[in-house]
Each structure stands twice: as structure tokens, then as C-alpha cells.
């Protein structure tokens, strides 16, 4: 075992193993610094180009105008009840079933109130459990 904590390969001296380890550490550090330096340089160049060519350009003014017009259309649509851009009139059709209406029951032709709980009045699962318990 070498002094640096690693195991030196057979036939290699501890000093050459330590030198190799130091060299690899320095190479990794250089690679890390180079990649971060490139990222930083790219950000600086992008900032300079953006400041030079983009701010104050007619394209930026046109984009801002289009965004402002789109926001105004959305706000107008929200005020009139339609929230769709580019549509002058929105028609919403839906079928309305009255809650207090009547309907005929299949087994007795009796009329009964159509309320929200009608779906839950019959529980097939509990009826099946009761039938199985009777048979047992």
C-alpha cells in the first residue's frame, strides 16, 4: 500500500504511482476549469451581442407590440366571457337535464324524482355479498 492510500500496481514504485495520481488530479482540474471557463465565456459573449444588436432594435419593438396586442385580446375576451384569442363569438351548447324532473322506473312504471343520489340508491356489490352470505 502506498502512502497516498491507494494500492500501487505490481512492479511500480510508490513514487511513480504518486506522480501518476498527481498528474491525473491536475488533468481533471484543468478539464473542469476549461469547461467552466467556456461556459462563462459563452455567457459573456451572448450578453455583449444581445446588448449590442437586440436592445433597441425594431424587431424587439415589433415583438413587444405583438405581445401587448395579444394580451389586450385576451383581456377583451375575458371581459366579454370568451377566453379564446382570434375568435369573435364563442357559442357553448350543452344539454341541461333538470334536477327536479321525473323519469319512469323500468320495473314498476312508477314515476320518481330525478335527483343526484339516484345513481347511488342501488349498490350491486352489497347485494352480491348478501346473496353469497345467504347461500353459505
Please explain how this structure is put together.
The chain is mainly alpha-helical. Among the domains are: 1-55; 102-135, no CATH class. It contains 3 helices and 2 strands; from the N terminus they run ααββα. It has helices spanning 14-54, 58-80, 124-135, and strands at 102-104, 111-113. It has a two-stranded antiparallel ribbon. The chain is flat and about 85 Å long. Residues 103-115 have low confidence and may be disordered.
Show the helix and strand layout.
Elements (H helix, E strand, L loop, with lengths): L13 H41 L3 H23 L21 E3 L6 E3 L10 H12 L1
Antiparallel strand pairs: 1-2
Average of pLDDT: 75
Low-confidence segments: 103-115
* First-last Cα distance: 76 Å
**% residues in beta strands:** under 5%
Q: Helix- and strand-based class?
A: mainly alpha
Please work out how many helical segments DSSP would assign. Answer: 3
What fraction, in percent, of the residue positions are helical? 55-70%
**Largest sheet descriptor:** 2 strands, antiparallel
Number of strands: 2
Gross morphology is flat
Radius of gyration: 39 Å
H and E order:
HHEEH
Amino acid at each position: 500500500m502506498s502512502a497516498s492510500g491507494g494500492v500501487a500496481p505490481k512492479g511500480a514504485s510508490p513514487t511513480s504511482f504518486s506522480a501518476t495520481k498527481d498528474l491525473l488530479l491536475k488533468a481533471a482540474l484543468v478539464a473542469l476549469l476549461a469547461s467552466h471557463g467556456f461556459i462563462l465565456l459563452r455567457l459573456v459573449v451572448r450578453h455583449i451581442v444581445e446588448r449590442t444588436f437586440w436592445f433597441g432594435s425594431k424587431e424587439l419593438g415589433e415583438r413587444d407590440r405583438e405581445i401587448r396586442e395579444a394580451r389586450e385580446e385576451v383581456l377583451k375576451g375575458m371581459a366579454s366571457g370568451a377566453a379564446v384569442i382570434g375568435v369573435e363569438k364563442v357559442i357553448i351548447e350543452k344539454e341541461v337535464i333538470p334536477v327536479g324532473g321525473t323519469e319512469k322506473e323500468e320495473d314498476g312504471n312508477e314515476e320518481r324524482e330525478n335527483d343526484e343520489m339516484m345513481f347511488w340508491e342501488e349498490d350491486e356489490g352489497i347485494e352480491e355479498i348478501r346473496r353469497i352470505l345467504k347461500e353459505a
